[in-house]
């Protein structure tokens, strides 16, 4: 699944990643202002074929039953496929430097301590 996404596939995935629930093609249409259903449908098929999304349910619109889609991988997993260890480290350091939440930093510190114990 090391297939890079096209711009439109990535647009659709970003909508799916940002949603906490499965979305229909119609939901995606409303979330992306400059896209048409004729673009969404074939891209959903491509994303399913590549293994990035799945049909996860059925929904209802005014007059029809629609399939709902959910991502099979996280956004972080997708991005991580294209980063080397130096880029990962730089990104982590940048995140720590930019964050202003003590709670987030505590969570990271806890995770780092746990990982260090696993590695020893």
UniProtKB/TrEMBL annotation:
- Keywords in alphabetical order: DNA-binding, Transcription, Transcription regulation
UniProt cross-references to Pfam families, sorted A to Z: Penicillinase_R
User: SUPFAM superfamilies from the xrefs?
Assistant: Winged helix' DNA-binding domain
In the record, biological process GO terms are: negative regulation of DNA-templated transcription
Which InterPro entries does this one have? BlaI_family, WH-like_DNA-bd_sf, WH_DNA-bd_sf
GO molecular-function terms, A-Z: DNA binding
- Top-rank taxon, per record: Bacteria
Q: Does the keyword Transcription regulation apply?
A: yes
Q: Which family does it belong to?
A: Belongs to the BlaI transcriptional regulatory family.
Q: What is this protein called?
A: BlaI/MecI/CopY family transcriptional regulator
Q: Which organism is it from?
A: Faecalicoccus acidiformans
């Amino acid at each position: 699944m090391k297939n890079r996404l096209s711009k439109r596939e990535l647009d659709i995935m970003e909508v799916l990643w940002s949603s906490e629930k499965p979305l229909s093609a119609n939901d995606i249409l409303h979330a992306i202002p400059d896209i048409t259903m004729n673009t969404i449908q074939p891209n959903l098929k491509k994303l399913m074929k590549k293994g990035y999304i799945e049909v996860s349910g059925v929904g209802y619109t005014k007059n029809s039953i629609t399939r709902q889609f959910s991502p099979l991988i996280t956004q972080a997993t997708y991005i991580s496929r294209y980063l080397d260890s130096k880029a990962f480290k730089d990104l982590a350091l940048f995140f720590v430097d930019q964050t202003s939440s003590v709670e987030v930093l505590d969570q990271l510190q806890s995770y780092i301590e746990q990982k260090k114990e696993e590695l020893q």
